[in-house]
Amino acid sequence: MGLGSWPTISLAQARSTRDKWAAVLADGRDPISVRQAQKDAEKAERDHQDPTFAEMVTVVFEARKASLRGDGTRGRWRSPLDTHVIPKIGRLRMSSIHQSDIKSALQPIWRTKHPTAEKALQRTLIVFREARAMGIACDPFVVDAAKRMLGIVRHEPTHIAATPWQDMPALYASLRPERSSHLCLRWMILTLVRADGCKGALASEVDGNVWTVPSDRIKGVEGRVTDFRVPLPAEAMRIVEDARDLGQEMLFPGRRSRSLSSTALEKALNEMGETGRPHGFRSSFRDWVQDTDAAGYEVSETILGHKVGNRVERSYARSDLLERRRPVMEAWARFVTGAAQNAVAIKC
């Protein structure tokens, strides 16, 4: 059993330590095992009192994930930290992290990938605030100081490319219904629901001509999202009926009967030379509404699944405007399918 090297450990210290462990051996215990147990206990206490940044991220994530969609995997809450911060400062103790450490971790992406850097910084601040609230010796100020050191960035957000609404009939006509990805894109155009809601659409979710999108496929904060009803136009109902005729429960099956991926939808548009993105269909609809005065603000926003009014207003106005949405969506479907030139709904 090594006791240390001379001259770091003096001869007198070595004799004293030898006597200590000899007494442990005389007591019938293994000195090496006892020493390792003591080291482990000291490390556990140190980790509890002053964890590393990586350990603290895990603690905070585990405490918060019940409030995140898909237990945090859907929104990839940890991703900016795992990719850009933990590799640089993950091993540092919370009490020892300086603003310059955080600055060095994020500086490579501060200007080139600013939205990602902002997310990483915001979540680093959450980790520090939660650690401080748990009694760990750290100062959230270091995150604010790091942001000042990184400097101001004038970032112009890039909007998702949207197909001009005037071109939607041509795009719709070019989508081939025999291909699952193309058919799903048609469904997205007709229903104006986000990709996550559409990819997993099931025939059993349609009752009459109303499709109920389950809350777990709706964007929003866990615990605050509810099922969303969509009045289906006649063109969308034909897609449902065709699937039922074929005995398909999943409207848009991918490989091995799994739901389609977002990549498959993007790839389908790329192969067609279409620069607009699937999510951009919603913007196309919104522009159509504005340019043709097809619907009022409240109805058009509800069609897109957006919340209208503040929390107090919504606590009283609880209708999902299903019947008022129906004629607008039917008019939109008739427009994109070319069934009616310049079809415009009665303003609702």
| Mean pLDDT score | 87
Could you name the CATH class of the largest domain? Answer: Mainly Alpha
What does the largest sheet look like? 3 strands, antiparallel
Number of helical segments with 4 or more residues = 16
Low-confidence stretches: 342-348
Order of helices and strands: HHHHHHHHHHEEEHHHHHH
- What's the number of extended β-strand segments? 3
CATH architecture type of the largest domain: Orthogonal Bundle
Helical percentage: 40-55%
CATH superfamily of the largest domain: Intergrase catalytic core
Secondary structure class reads: mainly alpha
Q: Mind explaining what this structure looks like?
A:
This protein is mostly helical. The protein folds into 3 domains: 11-49; 53-150, DNA polymerase, domain 1; 165-336, hpI Integrase, Chain A (Orthogonal Bundle), CATH 1.10.443. The chain contains 16 helices and 3 strands. Strands 1-2-3 form a 3-stranded antiparallel beta sheet. The N and C termini lie far apart (85 Å). The relative contact order is 0.08.
